[in-house]
């Protein structure tokens, strides 16, 4: 429940017809996320709570280092955005796809070579069984 920019636009958008939320948001929850102030005391408490949840979830994992820079300030929003950028960004999945593509290619070659080798053995030692 974060948004990329911290600044909230001053003017509220027009409401959706017959709905209690802005037309561009699609729901009350999304409007609260997009219009919530980052300078309010409740934001600071919630932000720290998000940090503590992330810290607890990543404790003793390789992901813990990603949120370490946010430990002193208990910046949950910053920690969340850092984790998303590092582990869920498009470049991460592109690299994973390339790695899997290489692995599948290697497995395919190994299987083909293994099959060809077995065929040669079969033809050499049992020529009449085909």
Describe this structure in words.
- The chain has 130 residues and is an all-alpha fold.
- It has one domain.
- It contains 5 helices and no strands.
- Helix 2 packs across helix 4.
- The radius of gyration is 27 Å and the shape is elongated.
- The model has no long low-confidence stretch (mean pLDDT 77).
Strand-pairing-aware structural class: mainly alpha
| Overall number of structural domains | 1
- End-to-end CA span: 64 Å
Report the uncertain regions.
Answer: none
- Write down the overall mean pLDDT: 77
Give the H and E element order. Answer: HHHHH
Q: How large a portion of the residues is in β-strands, by DSSP E?
A: under 5%
Number of strands: 0
Described by the principal axes of the CA atoms, the overall outline is elongated
Q: Percentage of helical residues? A: 55-70%
Largest sheet: none
User: How many H/I helices?
Assistant: 5
């Amino acid at each position: 429940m974060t948004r990329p920019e911290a600044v909230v636009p001053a003017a509220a958008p027009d409401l959706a017809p017959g709905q209690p939320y802005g037309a561009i948001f699609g729901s009350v929850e999304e409007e609260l996320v997009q219009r919530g102030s980052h300078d309010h005391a409740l934001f600071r408490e919630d932000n720290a709570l998000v940090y503590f949840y992330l810290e607890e979830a990543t404790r003793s994992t390789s992901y813990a280092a990603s949120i370490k820079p946010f430990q002193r300030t208990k910046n949950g929003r910053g920690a969340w955005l850092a984790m998303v950028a590092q582990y869920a960004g498009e470049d991460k999945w592109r690299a994973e796809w390339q790695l899997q593509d290489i692995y599948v290619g290697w497995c395919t070659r190994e299987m083909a070579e293994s099959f060809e080798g077995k065929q040669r053995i079969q033809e050499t030692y049992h020529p009449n069984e085909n």
